[in-house]
Every structure is written in C-alpha cells, then in structure tokens.
Design goal:
By secondary structure, the chain is mainly alpha-helical. Helix content is 53%, strand content 6%. Strands 2-1-3-4 form a four-stranded mixed sheet, with helices on one face.
C-alpha cells in the first residue's frame, strides 16, 4: 500500500457509509492500495459540511495532495494519474473511451435511480433506515432517530420523487441491468477483457440490489420485504450474478488507516 498525499499526510475520504457512490470512491482507493483515512458524515448535514470542506455538496469527498475532489469520476481520474498501477483505465484509446463512456452511463442512468428505489422502501422502516447513520456516535444516532419522522418527507422528496418516483426508479434500475448484460455479452468484463473503471462503477452502484458480503459496512438485516421481493425477481439474472462476482474477485481488503 502507498501514501499518495504528497505532503506526508494521508488522503482523507469524507463519506457516507451506506452509499453506492461512496462505495465507488472507496473501492477505487482500496483497489489501488492507497492508504487513507475515512471520516463519516451525518446524513442530511453532509451536504453543507462537504461544501465547507471545499466540495460541491456531494459525497464522497476526497482530500488528497492539497486538492479537494467531490466527484467520483474525478476521484478515479486523480487516483489513476498519481498511481497508474494497478490500472483502472484501459491502455488503448478506443477501449479507454468506451470504459469512460460506460462509467458515465451508469453514474447517470443507474446511480440516482437505484438510490431512489432503495430509499422508497427504507424510508417507512425506521429500523432499516438506521444503516444510514452507521459510524456515527450513539448520541448522534439517537438524535437522528428521534428527528427522523420530521425529515423523512424531505428525504423522500429529494431521493425518491426527485428522480421521478418509485416506479421510474425501479424501471431505470432494471434498464441499467439490461444494459449491463448487453454490454457484457456473456463475457467476464465490460471492456477489453480486464477489470476497469466501467466494471468498478457498475458493480459499486448495483451493490444495494445484490448486497454482496464483501461490502465493508452494514446493510439492512433483513432488508424490507418489498426490496427482498425486488431482489429475488432478478437474482438469477446474469447481471446480478456478475455484480457478486466482481465483488468476490476485485473488492479486496480496505486500505483505510485508523484515524
């Protein structure tokens, strides 16, 4: 593993533990073995904190080498620049362009929608929604549990209704699974016969659907019944099985260093 911060300080990843985009950022750091510190943010308050740290209000937020990066595509690009090996970008230009195009496709066409589909079923379940506060102190978690009934309408508006509502979110998730299987064409990887940023992105963003054991943090146990039914309806599809295989082959161990 390496320390790529440049000034002797470890990179810092500001994160939400139960988040597929955050999983994408973590996976990239871990895959390259870049030692880093993780800081957990409070859901709801994370946007303001991310802005104060120099980001745009989204997570994950990576502070590295004097830079603050708040977009997962830019995070992967920076990690690839400072530590090219093991690569996440294919060597050839056509393959690289295709990998980047697929990364963008799944970021845009899957990311917001699978999140909306998940939160549609998590929001009514106060026990299941507790996974969103993991990593926080006991007092903070109790406070958020107490105030949750007052804010859950806003959570639904932002995360479920914003992308188009639950039906649209589920339809787009299934469409992304269709696209994944079409691009794979029965192969092991999306581009060039090797693991790339395209595979990492698709697998990370599908994690709430597949719930692989290699995910480093808590998932609802059990998931709400409605989500279990949705998962079960696609559990034998090649794309679903492929996500689990990518986690088994390439998720690896954490490069996190205790603060």
């Amino acid at each position: 593993m390496s320390d790529m911060a440049g000034n002797g300080d470890l990179p810092v990843l500001w994160q939400l533990r139960f988040s597929h985009f955050n999983e994408k950022g973590r996976w990239a750091l871990d895959y390259k073995g870049i030692r880093h510190v993780r800081r957990d943010l409070i859901p709801g308050a994370h946007s303001g904190r991310a802005k104060r740290l120099g980001g745009s209000g989204t997570t994950p937020l990576l502070q590295i080498g004097g830079r603050t990066i708040g977009d997962t595509t830019e995070i992967v690009a920076e990690l690839e620049r400072i530590q090219p090996d093991p690569p996440l970008y294919p060597a050839g230009e056509p393959d690289r362009e295709r990998a980047l195009a697929l990364e963008d496709h799944f970021d845009v066409e899957l990311g917001p929608y699978i999140r909306g589909a998940v939160f549609d079923v998590l929001i009514p379940d106060r026990d299941a929604i507790g996974v969103t506060t993991q990593g926080l102190g006991t007092v903070t978690r109790q406070m958020l549990r107490f105030t949750y009934p007052m804010i859950k309408g806003r959570v639904r508006k932002d995360l479920v209704d914003g992308p188009g509502g639950p039906d649209v979110c589920r339809e787009k998730t299934l469409a992304a699974l269709d696209r994944l299987e079409s691009e794979l064409g029965g192969g092991d990887y999306l581009v060039g016969g090797q693991f790339t940023v395209a595979d990492l992105t698709a697998a990370a963003l599908f994690f709430p659907l597949v719930s692989p054991p290699e995910f480093q943090y808590e998932s609802p146990d059990p998931w709400p019944e409605q989500w279990e039914e949705f998962r079960s309806s696609v559990a034998d599809r090649p794309g679903y099985l492929w996500v689990g295989e990518m986690f088994r082959r390439h998720r690896g161990s954490s490069a996190e260093v205790a603060a």
